Amino acid sequence: MCYIADGRSGACDRYANEGGELVRLDPLTILENREDTPLVPFLDREWDGDLVTGDQTFITAVGSGTTYPDYKPAPFIVASKSAGVDMITVVTEGIFSYCGAKVKIDTDRHLGSECAPVRADGEVIGHVSTSEYGSQMLSLGGVNHLTGGSKKEGRATCSALLALCNGEQVALTIDNGADLEIAAGQAPIVNGTPEQRMRVGCGSATVGMFAAQWQGLVDEVVVVDDHITGVMSEHQAGKVIGWAPSGIKIKGRRSTPGRYFQVAEPGTGWGGTDLTDPLDILDTWKPDQARAGLSLLMVSTTGENAAYYELNDDLVPVQKDMPARLLPSVQRIEENCEPSLTSVLFMAGAGGSLRSGVTENPVSLTRSVQSRLTRVTSGGAPVFIWPGGGITFMADVTQMPKNAFGYVPTPALVAPIEFTMTAADYAALGGHIDYVMPLEDALRGLKGRQNDHRLSGQRSENRKTGAPWPISSDTRGPK
Predict the structure, then answer these.
(1) Distance from the Cα of residue 245 to its chain's centroid
(2) In what order do the strands lie in the sheet with 392-396?
(3) What are the two backbone dihedrals, phi and then psi, of residue 182, each rounded to the nearest 5 degrees?
(4) What does each C-alpha distance from 175 to 180, 354, 435 come to in angstroms?
(5) Helix/strand/coil for 266
(6) Mean pLDDT by 10-residue block, N- to C-terminus, for the chain (479 residues)?
(7) Distinct helix (H) and strand (E) counts, the chain
(8) Could you tell me which residues come within 8 angstroms of residue 80 by beta carbon, excluding any fewer than 6 positions away?
């Protein structure tokens, strides 16, 4: 129901009017089963007439168009062969009001309390989710933010999701928390500072990993961590290798021996706490076990913060220069920390009307996906299908072709989705057999009679390095 003047594009920048004909502006994206080879657009080269198989070429839904208003078959229903087996791939761009992004940010720094609102352009577009092992999670988008609030909230949510899913950098703020700049596959920027590494483990795990390397070099080690602070002499790892008691006392809630919770408040300091001075977590040393000259290493779970102390005659730690003997162990912690990245998983529910573009009986597609007879991909990328009802999937946006996502002013995201199965299974689920076209016809730029628009062209992309090939005679899911 959009009106597009001749020579102009629509509000979503996806379609244009060229002489009264509707044109899909983004080129149809074709995956080739090869890596690091020069690509030539299909329409710019001659087809040699040989059979093109699904083992070599895959039509993605990027640039294909949609089934909207959902009464017609999908834009492309393509027949190919894979390992000698007749296959069908149904290709469509889905319009997803029920969608969002699950974002994993590798950092020890406190970003915000669980459930704290996350804002883009001042509008709430999601919330902080759980803290995971060396990472913090954000849940962004969803139908309530896209359509359940004000128009401004919906537009801000859609805009942020679109940029994130297309690999662009997005600025976010967390209420009573951090300012973020994030992009999929890039290091997150927290309060203006790029993150370098994620933790090697919690404080307890770090003690366990490096206990033997510290033995004989220092009398006590404390690994400061917002979640589980580890104390070497009390920890089971220290006990097993014969570490002597030091008389140290830690503030916080003691868990099992050598493991302490809540030693400080969350923050951007040592080990994800608000500490700038790690000595703040130490209580008075036990005089019957501690002694003057006792050496103490305090280190964070990334090795970013480290300090060396010796007890004076009053059993008070005094900071000294880091001894050369301890530098390798601190560097080893840093070495074992993986680079900080931002991961963006697009998540959507495909249980709605787009299923009718695949079959006249939509629930049969859902059942076929749930039974793993039908493989789902998004722009050729593998997806994780959630168990339970419907077709709820997640896909790593860095495994998808460039600019795979679009939007409609509803607001909602437009994302590619492909359903691949054997030809026999497609017929059994009541598929639109009369609309099947050979793969080679699609590669020559032909379109199905169900399409109400023409394509602006095609572009090729190589298979992502290490990614599984989306079409196979084994349609039971990614191996």
Answers:
(1) 44
(2) 193-194, 189-190, 179-182, 170-174, 117-120, 123-132, 135-141, 99-106, 342-349, 392-396, 384-385
(3) -135, 150
(4) 12, 37, 51
(5) strand
(6) 89 90 92 68 52 85 89 93 93 95 95 97 97 94 96 97 98 98 97 94 96 96 96 97 97 96 94 96 97 98 96 98 97 95 97 89 94 95 94 96 93 96 96 95 89 89 88 51
(7) 8, 31
(8) 52, 53, 54, 57, 87, 89, 438, 439, 471
Q: Are 100 and 65 in contact (CB under 8 A)?
A: no
Measured between alpha carbons, how far is 161 from 348 in angstroms, rounded to an integer? 12
Q: Which residue has 């492909």 as its token pair?
A: 418
b/e for 356-392, b at 16 or more Cβ within 10 A? bbbbeebebbbebbeeebbbbbbbbbbbebeeeebbb
Nearest-angstrom CA–CA distance, 419 and 378? 9
**SS3 of 270, please?**
helix
Token pair belonging to 443: 């590669």
Tally the residues of the chain: 479
The first and second tokens of residue 453, run together, are 């628009």
Query: Can you tell me the distance from the alpha carbon of 101 to that of 217, in angstroms, rounded to the nearest whole number?
Result: 47
pTM over the 0.85 mark? yes
What is the per-residue pLDDT for 67? 85
In this structure, how many other beta carbons lie within 10 angstroms of the beta carbon of residue 214?
21
Handedness of CA 347, 407, 357, 360 (dihedral sign): positive
